[in-house]
Write a structure and sequence with these properties.
With 1346 residues, the protein is mainly alpha-helical. Among the domains are: 180 residues; 143 residues; 141 residues, no CATH class; 153 residues, Alpha Horseshoe (Leucine-rich Repeat Variant); 180 residues, no CATH class. 61% of the residues lie in helices and 0% in strands. Strands 1-2 form a two-stranded antiparallel sheet. Helix 26 runs parallel beside helix 28. The radius of gyration is 37 Å and the shape is globular. The C terminus is likely disordered. Together with methyltransferase FTSJ1, methylates the 2'-O-ribose of nucleotides at position 32 of the anticodon loop of substrate tRNAs. It holds the Pfam family TPR_Trm732_C.
Length: 1346
Amino acid sequence: MAGALPLGDEALQRLSRCLGTREEGVRLAALSLLCCSPNTNQPLSGTEVRLLQEFLPLNLNCDSSSFRQLLQAAMRKALVRLRDSSLAQLRGKAPRGTGQGEGAGQLAQAVGFVEWLLQLSIASLSPGSNYQRKKTALLLLVAVLETCTDTWSPDRKKGQPPRTMATLLSYARQSGCWDFFSQPNLLVLLSCLQDSTNEIRDLASELLVRYFPATFPEPIALALFQLAQDTLGSPRVQEAEAGAVLMKTILQKSDSGIMKSLSLEAEAALTLPSRGLCFAQHLLHVLQAQYKVACQDLLRAAATAPMHGAIAALRRCLLQVPDVAVSMQAAELVPSWQELLTRLVTTVRDITSFLLGALQSQQGPGADEQAAAPSFAEMGNAIGSLIMLGKGRGQEEEEGDSILLSEEHSLILTCCWVSVKEIGLLLGGLAELLLSPALPAELGPLLLLPTLQMATRVFQEILLRCRHWGAVEGCSMGFTKFCAALLNHPDPELQAIPRAVLEQGLEALSGPRSSSVTRRAAGFPMLFLCVVSGEAPAQARPLLTRCIQTLLTLATTALPQDWDQTLDLPQVCALHVLQTLVRGAGLGGAVLCHATPMMALALRGLGSPCWAMRNAAIQLFSALTSRLLGQPWSHRDGCPSEGLSLHAFLGQHPKLGAALLGELRVATAPTSGGPRLHPALHAILTLLAQLQPGADSPSSPSAPFLGPLLGLAESPIYAVRAMAAKALVPAVPPPQRHGLLLQLAQQLPAAPGQTRSHNAVHGHLLQMRALLASATGTGGLSAKALCPVALQLEARGWLLTPAQRCPLVRAAFLQVLTLLPTSFSPGFTQYIHDTISAELGSLLQGGRSGCTEPQVGSATLHQTMAHFMCSEAARLADSERIAAVCSLLQQPNPDIQLAILSWVIAGEGGTCKEVESALGLTLLESLRSVLQERRDKEFLRLYLEALLHLYRDPSSWSQEASSKLQGSSASCLEMLLHVVEAECPGPDLLFQALCAASLLLAHRFGDEDGALVERWCAALEECSRSTWSEVLRLAAARSLQMAGAGVVRRSLSCPSLVPVALRLINMAIQLLQDEEREVRHEASGFASLLRQSPGEPLRDGCIFVQDNVGLQSLLQLLLGEFGEHPETFNSLLQHIPILDLRSVVEELEANKAASLYKEDEPNVFAEPAVLAQQLLPVLVQLLEKAPAGSPLHASALHWLEATGPSVLRDLQYCKHCWSQGMVSVESLGQAKCPCAPGQLCPGGPCHTHSSFTPSLHRDRCPLGDEGAGLCQTPHSPGRAAGESPADGTGAAGAGGRCHGHARAGLWHPGVGAGAAAGTGAAGAARAGPCAKSGQCTRRAGTTHGD
């Protein structure tokens, strides 16, 4: 579509609804329609810009990664249009039909929108934002910087900035906009480097390095370096990794002048000409100092100076900084780099030996190396000894055992495992970088042969002596790179190192290992996987072949007669290694050429007398099955995808097929001593059952499988018969299915006296059921083609009667009949119905079908009969059959009732509204008696779940349904609420009870039910707490959607319900911030129903809106319908975070050692600061609308008197502490404050200006003189009352747009957060900085402290 988007009133309204709908795909499609255009120089219209400004702030916290990526792609297209159209305007080449004045307006609008988007992105990076908002903001910032700057990207072929980009940048900056690289923006991105997630840290670092000026300002660089130094010593892994990212970023953004100013180690300062070498020497010195502390006291080192932070910093600085790689290739620096790398490898070798030895009660690098990993008990004892030594106590003073790991125990474990993991990653990355064939050969090797051999021993030690999977996995990634670099190097000496490691490993595997029994041989198998994965994929793999052949030979060795159950047997370890090789992603299909002997080995191992062998064999079989069959069957667009057929499988692996067939024939061969167990049989059947049928012929390789599989129908083991039936399906080509079904039907006994074996009859029925189910699913057999089969079954109808004494056979026969509903004659169909009715009728009358005692399988038979009755009633929609099913449901037989309820819940009768209506009425009619009896919690749960399923659509409730509850609705509601309040039914039953109570309340409550509504609301409030389980929060949200909207609408005409309505809306506001998407979606349904006009009845066709749109609509509802109620203001104040900043600062002053783990937040998705920003204008409007002296004003003044002065005192205290240097500003980000402290620190949005705090003055405060007196912020001598302090610590922090009363208590991250603009988000999100005039003017006077 060329030109501007044509939007009439109706189309615009429809597009706006699409942009606000709950479905992400619809929102993205509407966004794409706004952003895309065939011509990249087509400007965005004013309407399109307005829609984007409304859409983006509401979609920043979406938790879908794909949505974020597609949002960025769409906005990139919009920004390209804005950029190219603006350049065309500046060149005087405006699109046709554009006037001169209009063109100038479009240019100003484009500049203004980019500025607005920049400020929105920066504001969303405040510490109070959640991960989703930060990630989206960074992606949008990437789109802005790569589109609207003149930064050249050498690694990109397309997407470079236009040559005339400088003209547009000059125009924008003259307008006071596009100051992308301002110091506040820089500080905000630097604060992201301390985020707890590596995605945010890495993306922020990439932005800083790629787009911002080449060097940091010196004061910032010095402060960052000190912060990085401190953070590297944190025991918390995330904080130490943040310190490593800081170090890497400082290295990339520093020059020689800054390097001289840094507090580097003396030896490192001598190599200033090479910044990378200088930094690496400094970090190595830090690591060696930390290692020295650890040798003296490992407990103290783990708490104050763990080594993993310094190792991670070395890895990032050496491997991820391009300038460092260039420095390594400088001829004059090669000796220095060789010396440093040798010292580095030596140091990490000593650290590895020390840490692993410490976990084995061995100290120092010279300790004897144990051949295998210690047991967890041995590690626990060793760590206990270290803790006692660190505390200065003896072993005799050791406290009693505890089931929980102590803080000290966790500190030592984390220090050891994470350091070992980082060492593996560092050494592997160094080998990959420095042994690349692309490096010039004349420079000589930076990693000398002895150094490489030393690194090899480090890897061997970690993999042989380590049991922690995280450390093993991280080390394995590095060792794989290490081996690949050596094997692909032209030097034969280097190629020989991995081969020697493999031979040593195979030799060590052959002997007994002094270790406790391990399920997967600890890290030992990864040693082999890393070596063989390093071979070039395009070449032959001699190491892989040698390894597998040796392992197969070892695994087939006979077990000793008296093996020790406490030791790892070599045969068991060989199986574990083979399993690891099969699962290895790096080997791909290279192991499949060895699949046949490995499968034979696994099947043989299933029959081993040794448990460890059987355990390892089943794991190897599972790995082989996954590798052979590939991805499991998937369904896309409702259609099953084609899987691997048996014919294709045998064609790919003919030898394997022969081996499987041989095992099947052995299992089905007659034996003289009676039936024998075959341990491998079920595994083979499981493999075959996962294949798909395919086109075949009688002479195909799959034909021989048919006979053994049919023979397994007589197996005395039920599980074998059931799995053989499933395995038969792929062995029968679709054209032969009809003939085999007829053959199986003819083998069924025609009379009671002809039954030869009940097992055979049952097996044949299971095979028929499997073939028919497969044919029904694929539509391969028509009703006409199945008529001969149906005739044979009709002749054997006695199998359904009590004359067949086995209930399981009768149930299987009925299941077969269920799959042929249209192929039988009417008479036989009636015969089936009569037989089942008689059986169930006699059962309900107390009979037992001719048996004096219950039989095995009788419950299965009765449930199958009940399912058949339900299915036939739904298929035929016959009133008599429907009435019969309802009658069965009312009978007190638990098996039949549970069967019908489970059939309803499964939705099998969803196509027949008559059945659903009748069953729903029956459930309602019996609800009171069921609640009174309450014989079984599971039955009650199923009963309520079925009831809710039948009335899941509000339109399904009828007047007849209400009449069924005539007189019992209140009592049922009372009993359901009693279940929720007084009993402890468990979360699942509580969910159903609360939703069922909401269903009854939605369709019946009057003025006399006010007490029940109050109790219902209180139950919802209890279940909606963020500390409760997801199931209960979902129940609260769904109950709100079911009945809450009706209560709120009723309150508009019933003042007594207004307090309840406010509580419900308050609850919905809380649930719309829940961390579970499903809970938020249910709560948005409640908000969507209330978006309709209050005077209109609730419509069934309501469009559910996106969560943030629903939140906005609820706030507008409060403002418009409940603004005069005094409780409205108080209910909103509950969402405003009130923090004790003074206690936080005092805690930081105490400088206590950081604990290893932070206290988990109950809801990591919620954003109190962002919510406060949205509530702020609503609170102000409530105050402005209320007349003076109203209860609302009194309530606001009471709150202000209680909280305002303390907040202002806290701010003054923080300002005093910062001015005295008592607490570092950056440390507030580490405090337990989710919102306010981060927005007061310079790293976050802490900018204020007198023009943005007008309502702090007496003439603007909605509370009048009294409120303004409390709101007035103390100011320093020599500064006017309205001015902003130069250090950015004014009362209106966080972008500081203050509205009304106690503004300091209502911080929110403004859109100008961290930007020179300083404008609050409340104004910019509504109109944007240039929405009307299109002109951006620089806001003067805004400063920021370093």
